[in-house]
Structures are given as structure tokens and as C-alpha cells.
Amino acid sequence: MADQDPQRPSQEFNPHDLTRQFEQLLRTRRLNTLIERGRPRHPSQSSPYPSPIPSRHSSHHAPHPPPRPTQNDASALPTYSSLRNHPKEMSPPQDASSQRFRNNLISLSFKPIQYENPGLLDEALAVIPLDRIYGEAEDESQLLQAKAASIGPRTRPEWGYQDCVIRALLRWFKRTFFSFVNNPPCPVCAAPTVALGMTPPTPEEKARSATRVELYRCSVCQEFERFPRYGDVWTLLQTRRGRCGEWADCFSMLCRAVGGRVRWVWNAEDHVWTEVYSEQQKRWIHVDACEEAWDNPRLYAEGWGKKMSYCIAFSADGATDVTRRYVRDAGKHGADRNRCPEEVLAWIIREIKGIRRENLSKDDQLRLKFEDEREGKELRGYVVRALAAEFGRISISGQRSASEEEQKVPARASGTQEWREARGEAGNRSPHNDQPPGEGH
Questions:
Q1: Smaller CB count within 10 Å for the chain: N or C?
Q2: Is 42 in the active site?
Q3: Any residues with CB less than 8 A from the CB of 34 and at least 6 apart, and which?
Q4: Is 317 noted as a catalytic residue in this protein?
Q5: Is 305 within 8 Å of 426 (Cβ atoms)?
């Protein structure tokens, strides 16, 4: 056999090897950060890593750190800033800002508890055309089963029957049941109205969980119109209108009514949506009733162009930080996570889970623990895949390859163009490609 040509490279470019090297680099940096935090520091010195919770200097000597990576090594790899947000250990709130954030999350965690009210569940079922929903679900389920059988005897359908029920419910809710409100029409002459600002809620509106009320005036007859932002699900079943908050509230309740396991997802940048658990895929599925979006978590960051910091999912079983599901590229789509240190957020999430699960049976607690571990692996996988995809798009010379073309994600459809632009959710669509909102928007 001829000797190998010494001029020929011995190894080809491997994104997975670079991913492992990058993870090792981050672990080394974290260790160095911990060591630096435990050392006395001259006031003139500054650390590139903020220390949100000051700690007392330990009397124990820190072990010798491994060799630091050089600047050239670090710059050769693409960065993923959210990896630095992984908490090293949990810590309770110790400052006013962290305590305010904790109180806010504790308050938000009560939202999905109303979805467990038996009386509200009965009211929700009464407005759903069950024959239509179950009929569409059965047709889609059989189609998916036939498609799977055509691929191979061991191939499972992509979605199960319960998933198809939620998908049918989503179509009916968006197209028939609920309406999106921009400016409410005049109650007297139905002419367009003009926004005047906010006004205090009446006692009756407060009783229906309307903490904010928008005030409008008719452009023709000058009549005033109030638009309470109701948070009471029973009221929303009657009014059947609102914006993303009302849509997520009402739709989440209806999903629970037909037997789905539901999460209400809060985003710090003023948006909310729903997640439902798929027994078929053993994971939580993103659902946004406003957009009739199913399993499209990249919608907000890559479609709307929305920068997001925190996405916290609340359910009757606890809370989970699911930001990594919705923000795949933190450098491009992530906003500053500065409401509390990451170790404090992990402590708050664990506290909420403890409150919600303390009265559950041991079997249920164990089942939820396994689900948490499976979801944690899923969320970490998004980070690894984002890194691998970034490496794959960069050639050896550092130039972008032809495979940089990313999958297209639609821009926001609900609301007026001016409203979307004001919220930073208009996406990157050009004016001639911007389709008008659908009926009821």
C-alpha cells in the first residue's frame, strides 16, 4: 500500500468535534469564574463575568485551575451567550430586584389553576362543538395512521388522536369562535374608534379580573367605548374577543376541557401563548391560537423578529424556564436576562414546583420528575444543535457556506401592521409581501 501523502489533511472538518471542544471551553471558563469570585480583588480590577450575588471570601484554598484557553482559541468558535446563563447552583433571592421577580412569578403561577375549576370546565365544554371537533380529529388521526403504515410496519404516526383533537380545536377557535380586537367599534354606530389611553376599571370589571381598561372614542358620533382586558375565563367565554392575553387564556381553558394537559406560557416581552403535552411524542408542544400556530416555537424570534429574555411555562404541576425552546440563537434573538441571577431563577422555579406538587402522590411526583429530566435534555439539545448548525455553516476559511439558507418562519398575522411594528413583532417582510390580517383581526 502506498504511503499517505503528507500534504493531504489527515482529518476532515467535523462539527461534532468542535461542539465538544466548545463545551469544554465553556466548562473551563465557568471554573475559572468561580475561582476568581472566591479571591480578594482590588477595586480597580474588573471581571468579564458579573457576580449578581456577592459571596463572602472562603477560607478554603481553591484548587489550581486548568490552563486558560487563549484568545485565539475562543475567537475561533462562534459564541452562544445563553450558555453562560446556566446556573451553577441554586440560590434564594437576596436583593430587591430578585424578590420582585420572584413575587411576580409566584403570582403568575396561579393563572393555570383556574383551568382546573370543574364548573368552568363544564362551561367550556358547553360552547365547544364536540361532534365537529372529534369528527375532524378522527379523520386526521386515521390519515396519519395510514401514512405511517405506508412507510413501514414499525412507523408510528406523527401525532396521536388527542393531538388531533387539539389541532381541530385550534382551527375552530381561530376561524370561528374568537375575534382579535384592534380598536373596538363604536357601540352606537359601529364606526371606527380612536384610542384615548387607559382608564380605571369599574368594580364590576375588577370582579372579572380586568386590571386594565382601554378607553376609545368614536370618530363619528364621539361616543366612548371601554375595552376591559378581562382575565376571567368565564367572562371570555361570553365576550369571545380580545388580544393575545385573552386568546391564550380562553384557548388554554378549552384545551383543558377536552382533556389536554396545558401550560400557560408567559413572555417578559408582553406575549403569552399555550403549550399542550403530546403523549405521542412525549414532549410539550407550542400552540399559539392567535396565529393558529402548531409546534412552531421559532415563530416569535425568527418569524416576528422579537427579542426575548424570559419564557416561563406555568401549569398546575409547576413552572419551567422554556426560553431555550423559543430562542435558539441568543446572540441574535435574545434580550438581556437581568431581572435576577440565573441561580435565583432556578431556585424560584424549584419553589413553584414544590408548592404545586407537595400534595401529589409519590407516583405522580416521580412521573413529573422523569418528564422534567426528559424536557431538560430536550432544551439542552436545542443549544447543542444550534452550535452544530453554526459550525456547519462556517467553512474552514471562516466564510459562510451555501447551506446558510434557513427555514422560513412566517411573520405575525394578527393585529394591524402599525400595532405589530410598535411591539417589534412585524418581522422582516417587505411591504409588498405583507398579507392583510385574516377575518376578525
A1: N
A2: no
A3: 62, 88
A4: no
A5: yes
Of the residues 186, 244, 255, 311, which is catalytic?
244
Q: How far apart are the C-alpha atoms of 318 and 298, rounded to whole Å? A: 24
- The reported pLDDT for the residue numbered 439 is 34
Residues 347, 4: Cα–Cα separation, whole Å: 56
**Run of H or E residues at 369:** helix 362-392
Exposure letters 194-217 (e unless 16+ CB within 10 A, then b) = eeeeebebeeebeebbbeebbebe
Would you call 398 exposed, middle or buried from its count of C-beta atoms within 10 A (0-12, 13-18, 19+)?
Answer: exposed
Cell of 412: 405575525
Selected catalytic residue, list 163, 232, 255, 271: 271
d(CA 92, CA 84): 19
- pLDDT tens for residues 67-100? 444 444 444 444 444 444 555 689 999 999 999 9
The count of other CB atoms within 10 Å of the CB of residue 113 is: 12
- Residue written as grid cell 412507510: 151
Mean pLDDT, residues 337-341 taken together: 96
Q: How confident is the model at residue 386 (pLDDT cuts 50, 70, 90)?
A: confident
Identify the active-site residue in 163, 288, 317, 321.
Answer: 288
C-alpha triplet 59, 60, 65: angle, nearest 5°: 130
For the cut 90, the answer to whether the pLDDT of residue 162 exceeds it is yes
pLDDT at 161 over 60: yes
Segments of 268-317 assigned E as strands: 271-278, 283-288, 293-294, 311-315
E strand or H helix at 392, and its extent?
A: helix 362-392
Q: What percent of the chain is modeled with pLDDT above 90? A: 65
Q: Check if 244 is active-site.
A: yes
**pLDDT score of 422:** 63
